[in-house]
Specification:
Order of helices and strands: HHHHH
Number of helices: 5
Radius of gyration: 69 Å
Shape: rod-shaped
Length: 332
C-alpha cells in the first residue's frame, strides 16, 4: 500500500483523484485475484498429490490383501489335500485290518473244521476197532463153546464106551477093570488138563491181544495228543506271528503318523514364516511408499494463505507496466 502510494505520488500526479483510486483498486483486485489463483492451484496440486498417494496406498494394500488371500488359499488347499490323503490312508488301514481279521477268522474256522474231522475220524476208527475186538471176542467165545461142547460129547461118548466096555468086561478081572479105570481117569485128567492148558493159552492170548490193543490205543492216543499239541503250538506260533506283524504294522503306522505330523508342522511353520515375510515386505513397501510420498510432499514449495510481502519498486513497476490501466496513460 505504501509502495502504491509512492507510485501514485510520483508517477501519476496529473491524474484526478478518482482515476488514481480506480487504478489502485484495480491493481489491488488483480493482485488479489492472482494470489487466489495461485493458492487455488497449489491447493488443487496438493489435493491431486494426496489423492495419488491415497490411490497408491490403496493399490499396495489391495495387492497385499490379494497376495495374502492367495497364499492363505494355497495353504488351505495343501491342508485339505493332506487331510484327504490322511482319510484315504486311514480307510486303507481299516480295510487291511478288516481283511486280516477276516483271514484270521477263516483260518480259525478251517482249523476248527479240520480238528473236528480228525476227531470224528478218530472216533470212527476207535468204534471200528472196538467192533472188531467185540467180533474177535465173540468168535473166541464161540470157538470155546464149541470146544467145550465137543469135549462134553467126547466125554459122553467116552463114558458110554467105557460103560459098554465095563459092562462087557464085568466078568473080567477086577484088577484089570481097576487099572483100566485108573488109566481112563488119568487120561481124562490129562485131557482135562490139556483142555485147561489150551483154554489158559487162549485166555492168555486173548489177554495179550487185549494188552496189545490197549498199547496200540495208547500209542494212537499219544500220537493224536502229540499231533494236537503240535497243531496247537503251530496255531499259537501263527497267532504270535500275526500279533507281531500287527504290532509292527501299528508301529510303522504310528511312525508314519508322527512323520506326517512333523511334516505338517514344518509346512505350517514355513507357511507362517512365508506369511510373516510377505507381511513384512508389504509393510516395508507401504512404509517406503509413505516415505516417498512424504519426501515428494516435502520437496514441493509450501503454499500458505499469507499476506503478499512488499516487493521492490523495480519489480512493482515491471508488473504495473503490464497492467492495462497503465497502457492507457503511456506506461507511467
Amino acid at each position: 500500500m505504501m509502495v502504491w502510494k509512492r507510485r501514485s505520488d510520483q508517477g501519476i500526479k496529473e491524474l484526478p483523484e478518482e482515476r488514481k483510486a480506480l487504478a489502485e483498486r484495480y491493481t489491488i483486485d488483480a493482485e488479489e485475484a492472482e494470489r487466489r489463483e495461485e493458492i487455488a492451484a497449489a491447493a488443487a496440486a496438493t489435493e491431486v498429490e494426496e489423492q495419488a498417494r491415497r490411490d497408491a496406498q490403496a493399490e499396495i494394500e489391495r495387492k497385499t490383501a490379494e497376495e495374502e488371500a492367495r497364499r492363505a488359499a494355497e495353504v488351505e488347499e495343501r491342508a485339505r489335500r493332506a487331510a484327504e490323503a490322511e482319510r484315504e490312508r486311514r480307510a486303507a488301514d481299516e480295510r487291511a485290518r478288516r481283511a486280516a481279521e477276516e483271514d484270521a477268522r477263516r483260518a480259525a474256522e478251517a482249523e476248527e473244521a479240520a480238528r473236528r474231522r480228525a476227531e470224528a475220524e478218530e472216533q470212527a476208527r476207535l468204534a471200528a476197532e472196538a467192533e472188531e475186538a467185540r467180533r474177535v471176542a465173540e468168535e473166541q467165545a464161540r470157538l470155546a463153546a464149541e470146544a467145550e461142547e465137543a469135549r462134553r460129547v467126547a466125554e459122553a461118548e467116552e463114558r458110554a464106551r467105557l460103560a459098554a466096555e465095563e459092562e462087557a468086561r464085568r466078568a473080567a478081572e477086577a484088577e484089570e477093570a481097576r487099572r483100566v479105570a485108573e488109566a481112563e481117569e488119568q487120561a481124562r485128567v490129562v485131557a482135562e488138563a490139556e483142555e485147561a492148558r489150551r483154554f489158559a493159552e487162549a485166555e492168555e492170548a486173548r489177554r495179550a491181544a487185549e494188552a496189545e490193543e490197549r498199547a496200540r490205543h495208547a500209542a494212537a492216543e499219544e500220537v493224536r495228543l502229540a499231533a494236537e499239541a503240535e497243531a496247537e503250538a503251530r496255531r499259537r506260533a501263527e497267532v504270535e506271528e500275526q500279533a507281531r506283524l500287527a504290532a509292527e504294522a501299528e508301529e510303522q503306522a504310528r511312525l508314519a503318523e508322527e512323520r506326517r505330523l512333523a511334516r505338517e508342522e514344518q509346512a505350517r511353520l514355513a507357511a507362517e514364516a512365508e506369511a510373516a515375510r510377505i507381511a513384512a515386505e508389504a509393510e516395508e513397501a507401504r512404509l517406503a511408499a509413505e516415505a516417498e510420498l512424504e519426501r515428494d510432499a516435502a520437496a514441493e514449495p509450501a503454499t500458505t494463505p499469507e499476506e503478499p510481502a512488499l516487493v521492490s519498486e523495480s519489480a512493482a513497476n515491471e508488473r504495473n507496466e503490464e497492467l492495462p490501466i497503465y497502457r492507457w496513460f503511456g506506461g507511467t
